[in-house]
Amino acid sequence: MNDDDVVVCVCADVGEDEITRLVRCGHRTVEDLRRVSGANSRCGSCRDDIEELIAQETTAHPAVPSPVA
Ligand code: FES
User: Fold this and answer.
1) 43 pocket-lining for ligand 1 (C-beta < 6 Å)
2) N or C: which end of the chain has fewer CB within 10 A?
3) Does 1 fall in a domain?
4) Does residue 35 lie in a domain region?
5) Model pTM?
6) Is the pLDDT of residue 19 over 90?
7) Does residue 6 have its Cβ closer than 6 Å to ligand 1?
8) What's residue 69's pLDDT?
9) What does each C-alpha distance from 31 to 2, 11, 24, 60 come to in angstroms?
């Protein structure tokens, strides 16, 4: 995670940049993002923030390729 990145999931140390990158690659559910990044795999308190990022990126970039990971 970059020093200027914003932490989304403290438990798994996953930042906004990583979540955004994965959403743009086609991982558009919390469950899928959990599988590929580990985010939201413990306390679960980051779920709303992850869902908000998914919604933002889905609106900004509606056409995505199929997930490869
Ligand atoms: S903050 Fe993401 S699982 Fe705890």
Assistant:
1) yes
2) C
3) no
4) yes
5) 0.87
6) yes
7) no
8) 58
9) 24, 16, 15, 21
